[in-house]
Amino acid sequence: MSSYSTSELYSIFIMQSFAGFSLFSVLLLMALGLAIIFGQMGVVNLAHGEFMALGAYTVYLCSNVAHNQFPSLAGSYFVFAIVIAFFVAGLAGMFVEWALIRFLYKRPLDTLLATWGLSLIMQQGFRLTFGAREVTPTLPEWLMGSFKPSESIDIPINGVFVMGLTLLLTFAVWVFMFRSKTGLQMRATVQNRAMSGAVGINTKLVDRFTFALGCGIAGVAGAAFTTIGSTGPDSGSRYIVDTFLVVVFGGTSSLLGTIASAFGIAQGQSISGFFLEGTMGKVAVLLAIIVILMIRPKGLFAGKVRS
Amino acid sequence: MNTLYNRFIGGKSGLTKLLVLAVILLVVLPLTMSVFRLNLVGKYLTFGFVALGLVMLWGKAGVLSLGQGVFFGLGGYCMAMFLKLEASDPISTKIQSTPGIPDFMDWNQLKALPAFWVPFKHLPISLIAVLVVPSILAFVIGTAMFKRRVGGVYFAIITQALALILSLGIDGNQGWTGGRNGITDLRTMWGWDIRSQSAQYILYFVTCLLLIVSILGLQWLLSGKLGKLLPAMREREDRVRFSGYDVSMFKVFTFCLAAALSGIGGALFVLQVGFISPSLVGIIPSIEMVIFAAVGGRASLYGAIYGTLIVNAGKSLFSESFPQLWLFFMGGLFIAVVVFFPDGLAGVVDSAGKKLTRWFNEKKSGVPPGVSLDDAMLASTAKPEKS
Predict the structure, then answer these.
(1) Which residues of chain A neighbour B158 with C-beta distances below 8 Å?
(2) Does residue A37 register a pLDDT over 60?
(3) Which of A41, B307, B327, B329 could be disulfide-bonded to A124 (CB atoms 3.0-4.6 Å)?
């Protein structure tokens, strides 16, 4: 450490913590959808990463279409692409719920195996459709480049964009879950299915809608990831364990917990990633999470609802 | 004597199953297959140990671990470390800058053997470690989790994270573990060349015999108190707890047992295949091992072996002839087994067997044709069934 001067250390600190914030938005984006599907519905969706990849590939397709057919849209297509990614992933989720998940609500461990099978099928589908090589959409100009507040600090714009999108989406999810009628029905169904049915909520429809919503959010997350990395057939599966750990670590039934745990894990990972070698930093953070989960099995923010 | 026979073999039907498996493994396959294919079957059978552990843990006790590859890998690494040290004697490694240490350590500029490698210079210690190291890890994790009543999905996710941690950890410490390439180039065990054809035959039979002994041992365990308590815990854990049983310790015991079995499997894998690497430890192999047990029938010991053999044979067949379709097949298998055949192959065979006996009984008792199915069912259920 002694080889760095104080101002260099300061710049490194700023940039590392920005990298941490960037990772925080990534983890939170991934975990938001899962916090709904796993945290609220209790469905272990191991294909969640593939829904993200679906969103990312949608953006890739949109980028191709925009650049080949409508060159005038080259600067603005990305905004539409995010919306399209939401609906594509959401509709796919709706279909999966109807075809597979609804038979397995009573058997959570079996859902886990079935969705793992689904993820294998989706991965191979991506591989056959888009090829085994990673793809990147052509990003609009305004997403490129970086801010330079000082000589040695360098903050990429795409990172800021992802952060902004994360904030927006988190706020939207919060409003939807806690301030809208559909959100109320969703939470009621989760807490007491029989009673919700008795007061006239169509619980099966709510289930399908909730699952689709979670998948749609995963699609948006995938769309956002195209700005910071390329997309391959197995991109989704690389994140799935982290995503589940974020949700479990935060306490499954708490949105605030998910946010807090995404923040903690991201900062831990980016700081330890600087001091230790890349993978070992991740190993250290994962180990810390496991140890904390052994002491506090319900996660940081345990729900007060009795099971 | 009679009770012991019943407890180990499982009576008449158990004897049939045992004989069928023994004849297939010990007579039919060795006579019909080349030594290369037989070695492949031997490799699959080492996964069978993991599947047996999963039958106990998941099928019987209802606890799904997605980290069994960790224990398989630990057992394998314990064995591989011994074999590697024997292969790296000072004479054959004299071109290294530090002779007498494994080659990958030399490539990573290590000057001396790390302390945790030293015990693995001795075969007996290594063989004990194959059993003990996985069991200790399982005991620590199991006690921490089950005592706090963590189970179900959470346990599955945490064990999956464990598989990720270990595979990343091995990958990241190249000098200590051989990194991504794993520990390769293993040759002899106490001077016995494990790569020769005769050794491959012997190791195949050792694997089969150990597998059969494991099945009998597990049957003996299941015919006692454990066989009643584990399914009871799976169905209504709270009631078992209220009856005064320490549920968590039974789970810890089963988890350790499954871990030790996986460790044996890993060690036999290393002996037969000649290498171990983090690719056998991570998330994907761990969850594939679950599907072996699921295809065979999650609660059937014999089913687990057949499931392992069939899925692996299918994998070889598909990846040789239709590599692109293999993942579709595997994914479809996961879904189909879960949705349509939750009891796996064993369930299908059992229900087919029951239908056959019913059909046979009908023939004997002479239910005339034209009687509706419902009547026939009533007739067959009215009779006291011979079990």
Answers:
(1) 248, 290, 293
(2) yes
(3) B327
Residue in this structure with the two tokens 């006692």, named with its chain if needed: B224
Q: What is the DSSP letter of A154?
A: E
- Sorted by where each begins, the domain ranges of chain A are 32-235
Pairing between β-strand B188-189 and β-strand B192-193 as defined by DSSP bridges: antiparallel
Residue-range domain boundaries for chain B: 33-342, 344-387
Give B192's strand partners: B189
Kindly report the nearest CA distance between residue B306 and chain A, in angstroms: 19
What residues of chain A lie within 8 A of the CB of B152, using their CB?
Answer: 108-109
Name the residue of chain B whose CA is nearest to A107's CA.
Answer: B338
- Which residue in chain A has the smallest CA separation from B155? A297
Angstrom distance (rounded) from CA A281 to CA A276 = 5
Give the Å distances, CA to CA, from A134 to A56, A78, A122, B320: 11, 19, 15, 25
CA distance A86 to A90: 6
Q: Do B339 and A104 touch (CB under 8 A)?
A: yes
pTM (2 decimals)?
0.88
A82 vs chain B: nearest CA distance in angstroms?
Answer: 29
Is residue B270 a contact partner of residue B127, using CB atoms and an 8 Å limit? no
B171/A109 Cβ within 8 A: no
Query: Contacts for B86-90 with beta carbons within 8 Å, 24 or more apart?
Result: B86/B187, B86/B188, B86/B189, B86/B190, B87/B185, B87/B186, B87/B187, B87/B188
Please judge whether B290 and A113 are an interchain contact, meaning their C-beta atoms are less than 8 angstroms apart: yes
ipTM value for the complex? 0.85
Q: A37-41, B150-154, B205-209 — which one is most confidently predicted on average?
A: B205-209
CA distance A80 to chain B (A): 32
